[in-house]
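Sat 14:20. Reprocessing the chain from the morning session after the first attempt stalled halfway. Input below, unchanged.
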Amino acid sequence: MTAIERALYELNEIDGYAAGQSFMHSLDPRSKALVTTLYIIAVLSFRLDSLSGILFMWIFPILFSALGGISYNRVFLKSLYVLPLILFIGMFNPVMNREPMLQAGSITVSRGWVEFISIVLRGLLAVQASLILVMTTGFQKICYGLERIGMPAIFTTQLLMVYRYLSVLLQEAASMDNARRSRGYGKRSYSPRLWGIFIGQLLIRTVARAERIHRAMLSRGFDGTVALRTRLHWTMTDTLFLIISTALFTATRLTDFSYLFNMIISRQ
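Finished this time. Tokens:
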């Protein structure tokens, strides 16, 4: 399986999880979207030097994965795809901030390294929460729920189209890659010129296919808004889920874990 085919498989696998049956799957997309947004806000609101609080927030993706019938290992591994981008964001903190912060025996850890680890953890947790939302809801239902909350239809439609055309792009890339390998006679490396031609042809083919899809959508009555066959139903379970999650996030955010850890260590 090539890298392109693996990416397409991963995308289809995420859509497949949305068809499951669990507590998280039964919730209204609006409640899950609100809870995910509040969770990301809570995680990002921690100070960069508050490692203990950020680490405690890790319990929520694990809990939501269990409630959604999804292996957390799968969620964690999928979140690692954005790790290079997150590392790039925080890579300069250890260099710019060398103020000593922690002492572990003879090893001194600078504030920059603590901030770097915090940036990595916050990025991974935010991505994991978003993945759980998509894997237990489906991207189309998320867009429809966001539109019902009040997000303008032009934004939700654009989000849905970008997500759908991503699979179109991968399918065209996989088809062209298979043709390239079948005519390459075992050759694996190509010149930058040939790769430029490959990317240009991929763009042309993707745009042409997207236009055909758009004409098919217009012929079926597409009016620029997200359509969903089933109606959304907000129940008491969704209200309790939102209230309990918000209370837990708030309590975790306001708790001084560094003070608690120091108290526990001092008593021992």
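The beta strands are 100-104, 107-110.
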